[in-house]
Amino acid sequence: MRLLDTSRSRLRAVLFRSRAHAEMEQELRCHIQHRADDLEHAGLSRGEAERQARVEFGGYEHFKEACHEQAGGNGFDSFARDVRYALRVLGKSPGFTLVAMFTLALAIGANAVVFSILNALVLRPVNVPHAQSLYEVQNAQGGPSESYPDYVDLRDRNRSFTGLAAYTMAPAGLDSNGTPSQVWLYQASGNYFDALGMEPYLGRFFHGSDEHGANSAPYIVLSYAYWQSHFNADRNVVGRVVRLNKFAYTILGVAPPDFRGTELFYQPAIWTPLVDEPQVEGVNDLNSRGARGIWLVGHLKPGVTPAEAAADLNSIAAQLAREHPVDDADLRFALTRPGLVGDLLGSPVRAFVSGLMLLSMLILLAACANLGSLFAARAADRAREIALRLALGSTRRRILRQLLTEAVLVSLGGCVLGIAGAVALLRIISAWQPVPDIPINVPVNPDYRTYVAALVLALFSGVIFGMVPARQVLKADPYQGMKSGSLAGSKSRRITVRDVLLALQIALCAVLVTASLVAVRGMIRSLHSSFGFVPQNAMQVNTDIDMGGYHGDQVPALQRRMLDAVKAIPGVTAAGYADRVPLNLGWSDNTVFKDSATDYRVSNAAADAMEYNVSPGYLGAAETALIAGRDFTWNDGKNAPRVAVVNQEFARKLFGGNAIGKHFKIWGGVRVLVIGVVEDGKYKTLSEDPQPAMFLSILQSPSSETFLIVRSNRGTQEIAGALDRTLRDLDTGLPFAISTWSRELNTALFAARAASMALGVLGALGAMLATTGIFGMAAFSVSKRLRELGIRIALGAKRSEVLAAALGRVVRLLALGSVAGLLLGLAATRVLSFLVYQATPRDPVVLLGVVFSMILLGLAAAWVPAQRALAADPLILLKEE
Amino acid sequence: MTDQAQILPGTLDLLILRAVSLGPLHGYGILLRIGQISGNALLIEQGALYPGLYRLVRQGLLKTSWGTSENNRRAKYYELTVAGRKRLVEETEDWNRLVAAMSCALSTQPGEA
Questions:
Q1: pTM reported for the whole predicted model
Q2: Which residue segment(s) compose the domain that A791 sits in?
Q3: Mutating which of B26, B30, B34, B50 best tests the A interface, going by the most A Cβ atoms within 10 A?
Q4: A516 and A547 together in one domain
Q5: Does the pLDDT at position A443 exceed 80?
Q6: Does the domain at residues B5-107 carry the CATH identifier 1.25.10.10?
C-alpha cells in the first residue's frame, strides 16, 4: 500500500502542475476570499467568514472537476484525474489489485522471457556490422559443412559476396604460463575478420595475406572475455608468444567485447587461422576435397539477393562437379541466416521458439480472460456506484474511460512486476552453460525490444480485459441498479460474457497442460529408451593427444599405453576408447556403398552411416550389445584386412539381414569386412529415427581425438581420482577432462530438457491461471446466489442439490473448456515432435493426465466457494436484507 | 433564502451573459450582479457558476483577463465577445418568446380556447 501511496503523490506532483489548473484554483479561491470579505463586513470574524464562504461555495472539488470538464479538459488533464481516481479505487481493494497485477505479471513475465529467447535466437542477428546482409552457406541437402578446397574455390570464383569466410570449431591445449589448459576456439580463414567487417579491440586481426600454406600463420586472436579472465585485461599481451598444442603462437590482438563469433550457441576463447589446422587439430584436411567440416559465411554485395548468390554458388558447384567428379558430384548450395549451424539447428529452433511464443501468448490471452471476468464481476459488484454516477449525470463514456484507466493501470503494474521477474530469470538462463567443459550457452539478456514488447502487450491486454465490462455499463439501467444493486436488468439464465471467457480460459489452459504433459512424458520416455550403450557407471576421459605434441605412430602407441594403465586400476571392469562417442556434440557420417558398386558418387550410395573408430574392448566398455559375430582384436591393425562392426539398421539396409562375413565399400572403394553386428542406438539426438552406424577399428584409421570409456564398480569420486593420477603419470603435459558419461549426456538431452522445462513452466502457469479463473467464477456465482441457496437449504434441499445449483454452471463450463482444450492441445503438440522424443499426444497416460489435472484444478478451485455455499445460513442472509 | 426560486436548467448561461453585458466582472461580481438584477429572487449555488463560465469561454462567448478587484485582490475578469453579445440578443429574444407563450398558455382560462 505504501508503494501505491508514494506513486500516487508522485503522479499528482507530476501531472497537476499545469498552468490552467493553477489558474482555476486561484480563481475559485479568489471567489471564496471575496465572499469572505463581504461576510466580514457584515460582522463575522475573519475565520468564521472564511468558513462560511467555503460552505456557501459548495463542493469545491466537484465544481473544480466540472470546470475542467466544461473547459474541454485538455485530454492530458482529465486523463490525470482518471488516473488519480483509479489509483484511489484500486487502493481501496488492495487484494483485488494485487491478485490482478500478479496474474498479469506471470503472463507478461512469461511472454517477456520467451520473447527474449525469440529475440536472441531468431530476431537478433549475429553481432557483426551490417548483419542483415550476412548469410551462411549450406548444402541443399541440409547441414553447412564444406571442405577446405571447395571453400577456396567458392571464395575465389564467386561474384556475389564481398568476402566469403570459413570457420570451424575445435579444442586445443593453450599454455600461456606453464600449465596447459583446454580452450575451445574458432579456426577461421585468414579473411574471416575482414569479410565480417570487424575491427579489433586491441592489436590487430590476422588477414588473408598472412596465409602461406599449412601452419604458416602461427597467430592467435583472443576473445575479449578470455583476455579478461585469463590475461587480466593486460594491454601488453599483444605480441606475446604462447604455446598452442606445444607450438609457438603469437598473440596478435583482442576481439571486440560483444563479438562472440558467428554461431550463437558457441563462445570461443580464441581464434586461430584455419591454415594451422594440422597443428591445432592434428589432422590435415586442407587438401582433401571430401572432408567436409568447415562452415562458410559472408556478406552479400550490395544489390545481390540471396537467390542470385545461391545461383552463383551453384554454377560454381557445377564447375566443381566437372573438375572433381568423385568428391564434388551433386554439390548444391543454399543460403540461410547465420548463427544456428545453418538450418540444422535453425529450423527446429525457430519452429520451437515460435511455438513457445504462441503458447505464451495463449497464457497472456488466458490471463486476459481471467482478468476480464474479474473486472466484469467487479463491475457487477460496483453496480450501485455506477448506477449512482449514471443517475447523477455522469456519461457512460466517462465511466467506461474510468474503468479502462483502472484496467490499464493494473496492467502496467503487472508489466513492471513481470519484467522484473523476467529479467532475473533471463540472467540465470544467460549464465547457464548446459554442456560441461564446452563454452556453449545462449545470451538471452533482454534488450529494448523486450521492454517495448512487454509494454505493448501489457497495454493491449489492459484494454482487452478493461473492455469486457463495457457492455454491462452501456446497457446498465441506473434505476434498476439502484434498486437491486445489480447491473444486469435481465434474467441471468442466458450465456454471459463471463461464461464464454471462463470456457475460453479453461480451454487455453487445457492446451497448455496437454502440451506440457506431452513434453514431460516424452522426456521421461527418452531417458528410459535404449541408447545403444549404458552411460551409468561409466567414466569418460576426453583428450586430444596431439595437444600433448604426439604425432603419427606415437598417437596409437600412447592410446594403447593409456588403455593398459587404466585397465590396471583396481575396480575397473572394462575400458576402451574411440575417436568419438554417440550422442556427443560432434559426429561424423560417411556414405557407404554396396560391395558391387563401382560408381562412388553420393547419388549411388547405399546408405549414409554414422562412423565411429573404436578400439578393441570399446563395445564391451560401452555395453553396446554384440548380437552376432565378434568384437575387434588388437590383430585388426594396420596391415590386417579392414573390418567393421555394424548395427542392425546398417545390416538390414545393406544386406537385408545377415551381415557377418560380407563386404561393403567406403571412401571411394575401400572394401570393409563385417565381423560383428551390434544393437541399434541413438547417435545424434534422442528423437532421431533408427539409422545405420558402423564401428571401424581405430587401429586401422587412427585419430588423436580420444574418448576413453572406463567402466568400474567403484564410486565416481574414487575412480575419477585414480584416473587423474594414472593419466598424469603417463604425461603431465597432456590436458584431459574426466567426467561421468551420464553427465556428458546432458549435451544430447539439452534440447529435450530445455523444451520440457519451458513447456512445464508454461503448463504450470496455465494451471495456475485456470485455478484462479475457476475460483473467481465459482466464488462470484456463489455470492450472487447466496440468498437463494440459503432459502433452498432452509426448505430442506440436499447438499448435492445445493452444490448443483451453486456450481453446476461452472462445472459444465469446466468440462466444455477442458474437452475443447484437450482437442486443440492434441493438434498443437505436433510442433513438439521436433524436439521431444516420440512426442505423441495419442498416449493414454497423457490423455488421462490432462483430464485428471483439469478435474483436480476444478476441485481445488471450487472447494472454498462450495464450502461457502453449503454453509449458507438462511437466517443470517435474510436478516442482512 | 426562503423566497428564492431554483433557476431553470439552461438559464444560467443567459443570466451570466446578461450580467457581463453591463461591463467586465469577476466571478463573485457576476454572482452579485445576478442577485442585483434579479432582485435576489434566484438561487444559484455559488460554485455552480464556474462550470458555466468555463463553458461559455470555451464556446467563445466570453473572454477573460486578469486584473485587480475592488478588494485589492487578483481576480479573473470576464467580458462579452462579439459572438457573446450576438448570442445574448438571440437568447433574450428566444426567452421572451417562450415567456410570452408560456404566460399566454398559463393565463388562458378554461373555455377560452
A1: 0.61
A2: 511-528+748-881
A3: B50
A4: no
A5: no
A6: no
